[in-house]
Structures are given as C-alpha cells and as structure tokens.
Amino acid sequence: MKFLIITKKQIMLALAGVLAVTGVIIGSASVLANNDRKLPVYCVETDKKQIAISFDAAWGNDDTETLIEILAEYDVPATFFVVGSWVDKYPESVKALSDAGHQIQNHSNTHPHMPQLSKEQMIDEINTCNSKIEAITGVCPTLHRPPYGDYDNMLIETLGELGMTTVQWSVDSIDWKESATADSICDRVLKRVEPGSIVLFHNDAEHTPEALPTILKCLKDDGYEFVFISDLLLKDNYIIDHSGKQCPAEAQSE
User: Fold this and answer.
1) 1 in a domain, yes or no?
2) How far from 110 is each of 58, 62, 86, 98, 188, CA to CA, in Å?
3) 19, 120, 170, 227: which is deepest, by most CB within 10 A?
4) How many domains does one find in the chain?
C-alpha cells in the first residue's frame, strides 16, 4: 500500500495560494457590486516592454540562495515581499537578497488576513515589518502586498496614509500547487505576460528554481526588460481602473 506524504511546506503554500485566489475573486466581485471599492495595483499600463518579477517569502527558505544565483545569472532584479516573522528566522537571507541588489518589500509581520484587523493593528503589522526590514537593509519598504491577496478599503487607505502603495499581481505562476511542474509554471507565465505585468512566484515552491531560468531566458529573448515593481509604477497623475491596472490619468480622459 502506498501512502501520500504531504509536507508542512506543501500545506502552507497550498493554503496561501488558495486563499490568495479567493481574495482576488472576492475583490473582483466587490468591484462589480460597489464602485467605491478601492483597488491595489495589479499591473501597469505602459508603452515600454517592461515587467516586474516578484516573490513572496513567508514560510520556508530552502531555495532562496538558488533563486539569488539564478537571478544573478540572468541579470534580473526582483522584488521580494517578506513577512516579519520570516525576517526573524532568516535575517541572513534578507541581507543576502539586499546585497544581491534585490528590493525587499512588506508582506505584513505575522501574515494575517489584514481586513480582519483594526486600523491600529494594521499599522502595527506594517510598521513592525518595515522596521525589521530596514534594520537589516537600511531601506524602509514603500510597497505592501497583503497576505492571501486579502484587502479592503481601510487597508489601502491606511497604507496610503503611511506613504505606501498596495500591490498585487497580474500573472500568477501558481507555483505553490502540489500539481505544479516546471513545464506548467513556464507555460502559465509565458502565455500571460504582457508589458506592465507583475509576476508572482514564491521563494520556497518546489519547481520554481527549475522553471525560472527558462522563463527569464524566453522573456529576455522576447525583448522584455525586468524592473523593480517600484520602478514600474506610475508615480503621479494616474488612476487605477476596474481591473486593477494603473493607467495615466490623461489617457482615461481622452
């Protein structure tokens, strides 16, 4: 008799992925139901062939050094959204990512569902994570990616008051799924990328290190330039449309 062994890492990645998808669906439904619903930035309208690669780091750490090596080989800058508790466990990896030239951004301190918190608790989650990152890198984050993709108006408004931008993703590699393979990850990402895309990976998904070189090579061969999310974002005079795309305000008024 054969037994299926599921590791804690697989369970946590699967839970995060399922809830992230659920959060996006709920968010989309709210947009339809309520025009006052505020949205994070999912992607950016641009006439440049630029995209941003991002990784969420909340649980394990087996592949971080390998990812650093792959990104260096292809000269690709990436944005890593890290949880404060992950920073506590792996400060050397936070420093290694920063020393390698990657941006370290905020993914909360304890990975909660942010809309379930009071405003004061949200601020504590954000500021505590920021402080931990800044203590190691010397740079305070300016971006926040909500755990599970779960957000509400108060979170986006609170982040704005703190001078930060709420960021999601437009291309999900779904590398956390137990059924994911290197080929399925490559196929999914390469079919969906377009100028202005923000691509989501995880730092501890089993097949991401195997898939990443092919993805980076194909996109580079196709003429894409890789930039940090902070450099992809429009800085002023913009709107966020119903799909979460950040667009120049003048383009929408024409």
Assistant:
1) no
2) 9, 20, 9, 21, 30
3) 170
4) 1
25: which residues sit within 8 A by CB, 6+ positions away? none
Series of mean pLDDT values for 10-residue runs along the chain (254 residues)? 48 52 38 69 98 97 97 98 98 98 98 98 98 98 98 98 98 97 98 98 97 98 98 96 94 53
Q: Whole-prediction pTM value?
A: 0.86
Domain with 221, as residue range(s), is: 9-249
Catalytic residue set: 56, 202
Q: Residue 45: its pLDDT value, please?
A: 98
Residue 32 tokens read as 């339809």
Can you tell me the distance from the alpha carbon of 69 to that of 66, in angstroms, rounded to the nearest whole number?
Answer: 5
CATH number where 51 lies: 3.20.20.370
Backbone angles phi, psi at 69, to 5 degrees: -65, -45
CA nearest to 36, candidates 151, 117, 153, 116: 153
CA gap 11, 116 in Å, rounded: 22
Query: Rounded to an integer, what distance in angstroms lies between the CA atom of residue 84 and that of residue 89?
Result: 9
Spatial separation of the C-alpha atoms in residues 61 and 143, rounded to whole Å: 22
**Domain for residue 232, yes or no?**
yes
